[in-house]
């Protein structure tokens, strides 16, 4: 098969390189891992075998993640929300309304988050050799502690991008191919054309902050989890962790020790094809109904000291102030793609499809409201929400409201779930400790936004 033509989709101001192979009846978007992303060079080596195998039964949509390969280099390190926007931009460019999303290694968390946030665009989820978080947690003992992981990623700056460094990476990710000199040459070229040494460092550090554990129960699409039993880069227990927590997910253990999807890729295709064909043939692919559950970020704001201010300005003055307050907040919601759900007195309730956008919106509201001579506080939480008549509801909404009640004047306060999902966004936080939220079981770790 000849390499496909590389085209470009606009995602904001950034051009995302993409290509399409195959003409099967349904679409699959492939999200690769780490920095392995150069559409041109990938076809020169064994990656082409996977592409060709998949293209026999589907329309396979490939793309280079922003900052890598043939896509634009953009300022800063992209967060998961931005990269999800890139997937939608590529799907729109190729006319794909709904696709299966396949995530490998670091591409898995983004794929999981996309499936939970955009079930209307996701027909199924396939995960291979991937994980929920890169750093150790109480229920996740397989990863390194965060500080140890970050130190490992940032040391030996002078070796990154060198031949010994690239060869060590190949030996770790695909040990059965390490003695093949042809594969080594291709691998080095693939790495060197995917990302610069500095970009590799920055993207690796961003990846180390990813944590999508809390989003797994919100994934409502058919899911297949594949993992090789001898994978030492991402151990099989991490795949089982995903399958245990994603509702209805199937787990399949595969023979082999290689982490890389480009090694013995026919083994993967043999599992993926019947799984996806079954969904298509049962007529479950293009479901027109709106999803009844999605992952969303909810934001609550209210005016601090509203009762005292009402007494000071009187009914007419207060009514005028509220009109200006509401108009200002609605402008910010439009700017950050938020959806107004409800208002009550001086309080606003809105939802977003991404936590970074929600945080930036809350901070913009707080900063611009000060021009009216008033102060607001805001609380945010990300969780699985029911969708009722187009509006979000459920326990996640109640948690968001309770987080807001803990916020101080001029403060944007978020739950730990929100903080975990904005890795790479540049947003900074200060720990506020643990708090009991009225009517919500347990204690919750809260964080105040200090910089966006």
Structure description:
The chain is an alpha/beta fold. Helix content is 38%, strand content 24%. The protein has an eight-stranded mixed β-sheet with strand order 1-2-4-3-5-6-7-8, sandwiched between helices. Strand 1 (7-11) and strand 2 form a beta hairpin. Helix 3 (80-93) crosses helix 4.
How much strand content do the residues show?
15-25%
Shape: globular
pLDDT < 50 stretches: none
Radius of gyration: 23 Å
Helix/strand-derived category reads alpha/beta
Oligomer status: single chain
Q: Which strand order spans the largest sheet, edge to edge or round the barrel?
A: 1-2-4-3-5-6-7-8
Which series of helices and strands comes N to C?
EEEHHEHEHEHHHHEHEHEHEEHEEHEHEE
Characterize the biggest β-sheet.
8 strands, mixed
What is the tally of helical segments? Answer: 14
Distance between the termini: 46 Å
Average pLDDT metric: 92
Can you count the beta strands? 16
**Percent helix among the residues?**
25-40%
């Amino acid at each position: 098969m000849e390499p496909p033509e590389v085209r470009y989709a606009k995602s904001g101001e950034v051009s995302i390189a993409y290509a399409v192979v195959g003409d099967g009846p349904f679409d699959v978007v492939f999200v690769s891992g780490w920095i392995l992303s150069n559409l041109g060079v990938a076809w020169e080596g064994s990656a082409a075998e996977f592409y060709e195998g998949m293209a026999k039964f589907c329309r396979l949509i490939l793309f280079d993640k922003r900052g890598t390969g043939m896509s634009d280099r953009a300022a800063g390190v992209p967060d998961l929300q931005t990269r999800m926007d890139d997937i939608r931009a590529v799907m729109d460019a190729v006319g794909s309304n709904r696709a299966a999303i396949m995530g490998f290694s670091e591409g898995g968390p983004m794929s999981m988050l996309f499936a939970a946030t955009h079930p209307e665009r996701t027909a199924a989820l396939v995960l291979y050799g991937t994980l929920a978080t890169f750093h150790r947690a109480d229920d996740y003992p397989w990863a390194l502690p965060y500080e140890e992981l970050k130190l490992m990623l940032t040391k030996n700056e002078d070796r990154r991008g060198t031949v010994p460094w690239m060869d060590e990476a190949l030996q770790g990710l695909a040990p059965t191919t390490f003695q093949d000199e042809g594969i080594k040459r291709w691998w080095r070229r693939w790495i060197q054309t995917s990302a610069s040494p500095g970009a590799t460092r920055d993207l690796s550090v961003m990846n180390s902050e990813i944590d999508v554990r809390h989003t797994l129960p919100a994934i409502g699409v058919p899911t297949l989890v594949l993992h090789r039993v001898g994978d030492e880069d991402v151990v099989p227990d991490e795949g089982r962790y995903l399958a245990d927590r994603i509702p209805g997910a199937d787990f399949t253990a595969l023979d082999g020790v290689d982490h890389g999807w480009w090694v013995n890729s026919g083994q993967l295709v043999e599992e993926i094809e019947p799984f996806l064909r079954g969904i298509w043939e049962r007529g479950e692919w293009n479901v027109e109904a709106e999803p009844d559950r999605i992952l969303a970020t909810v934001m609550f704001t209210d005016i601090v000291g509203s009762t005292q201010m009402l007494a000071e300005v009187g009914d007419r003055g207060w009514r005028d102030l509220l009109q200006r307050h509401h108009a200002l907040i609605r402008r910010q919601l439009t700017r950050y793609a938020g959806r107004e759900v409800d208002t009550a007195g001086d309080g606003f309730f809105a939802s977003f499809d991404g936590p970074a956008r929600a945080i930036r919106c809350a901070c913009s509201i707080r900063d611009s409201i000060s021009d009216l001579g008033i102060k607001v506080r805001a609380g945010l939480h990300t969780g699985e929400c029911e969708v009722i008549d187009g509006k979000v509801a459920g326990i996640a909404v109640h948690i968001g409201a309770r987080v807001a009640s803990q916020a101080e004047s001029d403060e944007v306060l978020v739950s730990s779930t929100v903080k975990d999902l904005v890795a790479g966004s540049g947003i900074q936080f200060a720990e506020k400790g643990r708090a009991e939220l009225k009517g919500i079981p347990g204690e919750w770790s809260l964080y105040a936004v200090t910089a966006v």
